[in-house]
Amino acid sequence: MVEAKLNSPVRQVRQEPQALVVTLAGDVDLHRTPELQQELVRVVERRPRRIVLDLTAVQYMDSSGVASLVKLLSSTRRQNIELKLCGMAPRVKSIFEITRLDTVFDICPALKDALA
Amino acid sequence: MVEAKLNSPVRQVRQEPQALVVTLAGDVDLHRTPELQQELVRVVERRPRRIVLDLTAVQYMDSSGVASLVKLLSSTRRQNIELKLCGMAPRVKSIFEITRLDTVFDICPALKDALA
Amino acid sequence: MSAIPPQPIRLSLASTPAHLPIVRAGVGEIARLVGFDEKAVDAVVLAVDEAMTNIIKHAYDGRNDQPIEAAFTALSEAADGGPAGLTIVLEDRGKPVDPAAVRSRDLDDVRPGGLGVHIMGCCMDRVDYTPREGGGTRLTMTKFLRAADKPGARQPQLTGGTRG
Amino acid sequence: MSAIPPQPIRLSLASTPAHLPIVRAGVGEIARLVGFDEKAVDAVVLAVDEAMTNIIKHAYDGRNDQPIEAAFTALSEAADGGPAGLTIVLEDRGKPVDPAAVRSRDLDDVRPGGLGVHIMGCCMDRVDYTPREGGGTRLTMTKFLRAADKPGARQPQLTGGTRG
Ligand SMILES: Nc1ncnc2c1ncn2[C@@H]1O[C@H](COP(=O)(O)OP(=O)(O)O)[C@@H](O)[C@H]1O
Ligand SMILES: Nc1ncnc2c1ncn2[C@@H]1O[C@H](COP(=O)(O)OP(=O)(O)O)[C@@H](O)[C@H]1O
């Protein structure tokens, strides 16, 4: 899927001392989740101690996006990797609340909290 | 037209020492120009020396909006009232450029320039 | 907002994820026009996005060139005595829905499946699947302007789930 | 963006200014999907807004419950050999267009009339009015992705202006 590649919501993956930080941007919907899932698999394969997903620049997320994060959570749990989400806009937060997944994920207000 | 009233793009009309400042907001399209035109007539009836239209909060303007301003320009010219526009976002500015009315109106970057 | 004409706004598109942003943008403005606040607008947008996503994934098995028809009708307070709101009908010509499948999943079970239907039920006041005449599925979702009578997250109501 | 299916996106609405924000939002996303930059997206949105405004004002004399049909087709580079772009067709069933009237006005003359057609001509590469079968008008506007061959503000091309 070439066009999925063009469409990746992953803007940046960078190693910080405390965690591997994955920055997402734009709309995370069915159109853009195939590439997201592939990249998240590669991120987990790097076996970091902690993964932080920075969602500050995400404007919209639908259940396909949430489903990708649920998959990520399952695989990080299996491999004992810590996973934190941060920087959710109210609109993004509300889909986690609607799905009640806000209690399942470790959600921090800002990146600095997730790196603490 | 009651719903036009609810829909007025005129957010505020206030007298400053140098001019009567009319602040518009939101989308200025066919849906909202009937009320705009009525309010602009009332503004001209107050016979100020200068009218400044502050467009900082206008997100979108179509030709109905531009047409209302052209009408305002005609009546202010007839009555020797100075008219200045200010605070145009690039998207709003472009409709003036497309219609080449950017050369007909007195357009200032910011409110302070229009009050100078 | 009495000036909204009673006839529905209709949109027909293809079953491609590429069309989702178009639908979201249009639906958001429709919900705003009906008078929903921004939180409710987001909920309506999310519900329609999920419904389209399901049609693409399940009804059409991911094929991206199949037809989806949407109709948006503003419900006026005066017309039916009930509360004003918005009814959205989405029709596909794909694989019919299995009524047993279209059910909120158990949330304790952390896995992807079943989120979409759950989300629609949370976002809208009514969610009904019925077979479409001529094949496929007709999904009717309604959200009322007065949210007072809405007891939080509700299961979607499944009616007419038998296949045509 | 090869994944855009060839069939047009269709939208049918009523001739009310209340529907303009819906069309603007949807058209903007369609233009973005086709690959226009933000400046070109704004131009496409403006052109469609003006076209709808004219239909409401002139074809339907301000009546707000009459039908307007829009179809949006992504032109692909491969399909026709020509440049990729977007074709937009707007149909009304109202008063036919007077070809003499649909002409850019003289800009030295500062007055409202004639701005809409002028704007459409500036925003799009082609603007064609033809009578609609069964009455009314069919307006076809095209904008190409390669803007290189576009010599700035151009007069709309008027073809088939004779009434049906
Ligand atoms: N439009 C549809 N056509 C056919 N089946 C559907 C449709 N929508 C939903 N379904 C069925 O309902 C099930 C639950 O859907 P959903 O809650 O969105 O979860 P998911 O898409 O993650 O499986 C799907 O697995 C599918 O079997
Ligand atoms: N869809 C239409 N149906 C009928 N007549 C139209 C239509 N669009 C434009 N016209 C005619 O073209 C003229 C010019 O339109 P326009 O440039 O938008 O200026 P304005 O709307 O300010 O008169 C109108 O006055 C009208 O006579």
List keywords for this structure.
heterotetramer, A: 116 residues, alpha/beta, Transcription Regulator spoIIAA, 5 strands, 41% helix, disordered N terminus, C: 164 residues, alpha+beta, Heat Shock Protein 90, 5-stranded antiparallel beta sheet, 4 helices, globular, disordered C terminus, binds adenosine-5'-diphosphate
Short description:
Chain A has 116 residues and is an alpha/beta fold. Chain A is built from five helices and five strands, in the order αββαβαβαβα. In chain A, strands 1-2-3-4-5 form a five-stranded mixed sheet.
Describe this structure in words.
The complex is a heterotetramer, with two copies of chain A (116 residues) and two copies of chain C (164 residues). Chain A has 116 residues and is an alpha/beta fold. Chain A has a single domain (2-115), classed as STAS domain (Transcription Regulator spoIIAA, 2-Layer Sandwich), CATH 3.30.750.24. Chain A contains five helices and five strands; from the N terminus they run H-E-E-H-E-H-E-H-E-H. Chain A has helices spanning 2-6, 33-45, 63-78, 90-98, 111-115; strands spanning 10-15, 20-28, 50-61, 82-86, 107-108. In chain A, strands 1-2-3-4-5 form a five-stranded mixed β-sheet. The radius of gyration of chain A is 13 Å and the shape is globular. Chain C has 164 residues and is α+β, with helices and mostly antiparallel strands. Chain C has one domain: 2-Layer Sandwich (Heat Shock Protein 90), CATH 3.30.565. Chain C has helices at 20-34, 38-59, 77-80, 115-123; strands spanning 9-14, 67-75, 85-92, 126-131, 137-144. Chain C has a five-stranded antiparallel β-sheet. In chain C, helix 1 packs antiparallel against helix 2 and helix 2 runs antiparallel to helix 4. Chains in contact: A-C, A-D, B-C, B-D, C-D. At the C-D interface, strand 1 and helix 1 of C face strand 1 and helix 1 of D. One adenosine-5'-diphosphate is lined by residues 54-55, 57-59, 92, 95, 97-98, 101-102, 112-117, 137 of chain D. One adenosine-5'-diphosphate binds at residues 54-55, 57-59, 92, 95, 97-98, 101-102, 112-117, 137 of chain C.
